[in-house]
Each structure stands twice: as C-alpha cells, then as structure tokens.
C-alpha cells in the first residue's frame, strides 16, 4: 500500500463592501492520495480461430468447425457453469496490391471468430489456454485480470485518502498557528490502475507444461481534496 499527499495553503478573501463587517475567510486546501493494491480474482481470456480460404463460404465453414471443437473442449475444461460469449466475428477479403496501381485483386478470405472466457479460478488460466489451442484455436488475443468487488477496494482507498487529507489539514494549520473550524468543500476522485493485458502467439505454446501466467496485482487509487476554514488560535 502506498500513500502520498500534497498540500497547499490558500487564502480566500471574500469581497467586502463598505457596509459589510464580516472578517475575511481564511482556508486551507489539502490533497490526500491513497493507492491500494489488490490481487485480482477474476480473469477474461479472449480466444479465437482464424481461417483462410479461397472462397468466403469455405473460410467461414472451416472457422465454424474449428471454433466449435475449441468451444466443446473449453466447456468441458471450465465446467457447466462456464461464462463464454462471442466478442467479435469478421469475414474479410484478402487483397493483393499491384505495384503499378490499378484495382487490387482478391486472393482469398479470412474469417476470425473470438470468444471471451470468464473465470473465477485463476489457477486454470494456463490449462484453459492449452486446451483451446490443442482443440483448434489459433489466436489468444489477450488476458485481462479484474476484481469481482472493486468497490470495496476503492472504498478503502477513499477512506484512507480522506483520513490523510484531514490529518494533514490539522498538521498544516497547527504549524501555521491556525485551527481548523469546519470543512468547506470535499472533492473526490478515484481510478483503477491500468489493466495490463497479456498477449500470446498460439504457435509459441507448444510446451508440454501448462502455459505459465502470473496475475500480478491491480492498483486502485483515490484522491480526496479538502478545503477547510481556519482561524487564528488564541495566544
């Protein structure tokens, strides 16, 4: 867990007309940052099949056959409650471009079908990838690790950031001979760390041992900005 903070002193002077007798309002603005690291407990694996043929119907048919074989193996490996869904499908012509210009020539067609497997058991990632590729899948487009309850981790980061901001406001005020009397404004912002997808080439997974995958951690951050009213302490 890492916690950072920045603080600055802001003096706000309210406009005072000749008829007004209110004292200028003094405030301190502080920023508390918190970064909480958590281990992911869910993973999304994008697995697909790419086929090429001279005719579009042939490319599509071959793709469907190979993907169905991969899906059958995946469902068996993951279990009856498997969360598998299609995320993309394409059937596009392949062109040959001529150096002297002119209309490109269609040389064949490429069909691509990608499904997403969502797992809660991270220990199965390597075996799932191997099972799919052995059954006919030839594309593993990426892996994304996620948190099933990111909100609780974000709440922890937010709580720590708020406590840090308030504590720093008190320390800063005391160092300047001031006292915090009330909170004028609270602003908050939070974000999850960047998801680092893992990319694979199917032809590189020929080893007998399961494909090794290291989940790492996910950073969830929060920032709280406090503006507090301060007054001079009695001497």
Structure notes:
This protein is an alpha+beta fold. The protein folds into two domains: 2-38 and 150-193 and 219-232; 42-146, 2-Layer Sandwich (Alpha-Beta Plaits), CATH 3.30.70. 25% of the residues lie in helices and 43% in strands. The strands form two sheets. The chain has a four-stranded antiparallel β-sheet. The chain has a four-stranded antiparallel β-sheet with strand order 4-5-3-6. Strand 4 and strand 5 form a beta hairpin. Helix 1 runs antiparallel to helix 2 (125-134). It starts with a strand and ends with a strand.
Describe this protein with a few key phrases.
alpha+beta, Alpha-Beta Plaits, 235 residues, 4-stranded antiparallel beta sheet, 43% strand, 25% helix
What is the CATH architecture descriptor of the largest domain?
2-Layer Sandwich
Assign the CATH topology of the largest domain: Alpha-Beta Plaits
Strand content: 35-45%
What is the CATH domain class of the largest domain? Alpha Beta
Q: Which H/E pattern describes the elements?
A: EEEHEEHEHEE
Quantity of strands, as a count = 8
**Class inferred from helices and paired strands:** alpha+beta
**What's the helix count?**
3
Question: Termini, distance in Å?
Answer: 40 Å
Summarize it:
The chain is α+β, with helices and mostly antiparallel strands and 235 residues long. It has 3 helices and 8 strands; from the N terminus they run βββαββαβαββ. The two termini are 40 Å apart.
Write the layout of secondary structure elements.
Blueprint: E1 2-11, E2 26-38, E3 42-53, H1 56-78, E4 83-96, E5 105-119, H2 125-134, E6 139-146, H3 150-175, E7 178-192, E8 218-232
Antiparallel strand pairs: 1-2, 2-8, 3-5, 3-6, 4-5, 7-8
């Amino acid at each position: 867990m890492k916690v950072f903070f920045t603080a600055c002193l802001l003096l706000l002077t309210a406009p005072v007309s000749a008829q007004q007798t209110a004292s200028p309002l003094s405030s301190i603005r502080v920023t508390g940052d918190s970064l909480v690291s958590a281990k992911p407990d869910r993973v999304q694996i994008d697995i697909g099949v790419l086929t090429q043929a001279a005719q579009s119907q042939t490319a599509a048919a071959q793709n469907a056959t190979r993907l169905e074989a991969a899906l059958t193996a995946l469902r068996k490996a993951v279990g009856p409650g498997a969360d598998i869904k299609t995320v993309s499908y394409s059937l596009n012509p392949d062109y040959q471009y001529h150096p002297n210009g002119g209309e490109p020539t269609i040389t064949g067609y490429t069909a691509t079908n990608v499904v997403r497997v969502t797992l809660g058991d991270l220990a199965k990632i390597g075996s799932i990838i191997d099972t799919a590729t052995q059954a006919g899948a030839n594309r593993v487009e990426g892996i994304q690790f996620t948190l099933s309850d990111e909100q609780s981790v974000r709440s922890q980061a937010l709580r720590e950031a708020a406590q840090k901001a308030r504590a720093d406001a008190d320390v800063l005020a005391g160092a300047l001979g001031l006292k915090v009397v009330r909170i004028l404004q609270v602003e908050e912002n939070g974000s999850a760390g960047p998801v680092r997808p893992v990319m694979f080439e199917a032809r590189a997974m020929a080893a007998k041992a399961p494909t090794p995958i290291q989940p790492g951690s996910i950073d969830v951050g929060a920032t709280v900005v406090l503006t507090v009213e301060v007054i001079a302490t009695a001497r």
